[in-house]
């Protein structure tokens, strides 16, 4: 039951944090000739997903280093604040419009090919590398060291985004309560992560500095 909850939390976190990625992919695709756009959207989503899996597996291992958990908790608080700003400014709605423009052969750039698919994917990759920190921290914190859970949760989110990105952005725009619920989950995870980063007997900074004995926290949320 706990594994199902955590897997669901990973999927939700990844989807609600995908608005900025979807916006970049949609804008890059819309700048291509219509015949290349579908490939750009699909390959762009796959690139974003693969990068997140690689970075998240690395982050999961790093969070096991004593002292890093507290830093990760602080960064996850920043992620929560950033997501709050995205919800307020309607990033999901902008991403939905960008993807719809890319799907419409009569919208966006409609002239002869002036940019190759490879160049568009390179732009998407660079943007994803710089924007993947939020996804990586959130899903790594929820997975809590369970690499199998991490990969399974992200794999499901990948399939959803690869084949239903526009629909997902539409749902998040139509029902903003989903994004607020996702933010609440991340705030909870960030608070727990900070508590463990300070108080955990093995990884907390307080026991490391000899300020207290520390507590043993169970895995899971």
Automatic annotation (TrEMBL):
**PANTHER family of this UniProt entry?**
MEMBRANE BOUND PREDICTED REDOX MODULATOR, SLL1022 PROTEIN
What family does this belong to? Belongs to the TerC family.
Principal location class: membrane
The record, for InterPro entries, names:
Integral_membrane_TerC, Integral_membrane_YjbE
Query: This protein's superkingdom?
Result: Bacteria
Q: NCBIfam families, per this entry?
A: R_switched_YjbE
Q: What is this protein called?
A: YjbE family putative metal transport protein
Q: Which UniProt keywords apply?
A: Membrane, Transmembrane, Transmembrane helix
Quote the subcellular location field of this record.
Membrane
TM region positions: 7-30, 36-55, 62-84, 149-172, 178-199
Q: What Pfam families has UniProt attached to this entry?
A: TerC
Topology relative to the lipid bilayer, per the entry, is: Multi-pass membrane protein
């Amino acid at each position: 039951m706990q594994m199902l909850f955590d897997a669901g939390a990973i999927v939700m976190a990844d989807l609600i944090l995908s608005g900025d990625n979807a916006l970049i992919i949609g804008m890059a695709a819309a700048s291509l000739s219509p015949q290349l756009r579908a490939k750009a959207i699909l390959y762009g989503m796959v690139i974003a997903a693969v990068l997140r899996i690689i970075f998240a597996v690395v982050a999961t291992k790093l969070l096991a280093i004593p002292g890093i958990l507290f830093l990760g908790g602080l960064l996850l608080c920043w992620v929560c604040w950033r997501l709050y700003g995205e919800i307020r400014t309607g990033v999901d709605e902008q991403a939905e419009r960008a993807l719809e423009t890319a799907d419409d052969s009569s919208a966006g750039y409609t002239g002869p090919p002036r940019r190759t698919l490879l160049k568009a994917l390179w732009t998407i990759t660079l943007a994803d590398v710089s924007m993947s920190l939020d996804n990586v921290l959130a899903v790594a914190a929820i997975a809590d060291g369970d690499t199998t859970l991490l990969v399974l949760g992200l794999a499901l989110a990948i399939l959803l985004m690869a084949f239903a990105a526009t629909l997902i952005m539409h749902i998040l725009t139509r029902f903003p309560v989903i994004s607020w619920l996702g933010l609440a989950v991340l705030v909870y995870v960030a608070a727990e992560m900070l508590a463990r980063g300070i108080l955990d007997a093995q990884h907390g900074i307080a026991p490391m500095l000899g300020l207290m004995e520390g507590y043993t926290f169970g895995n899971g949320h």
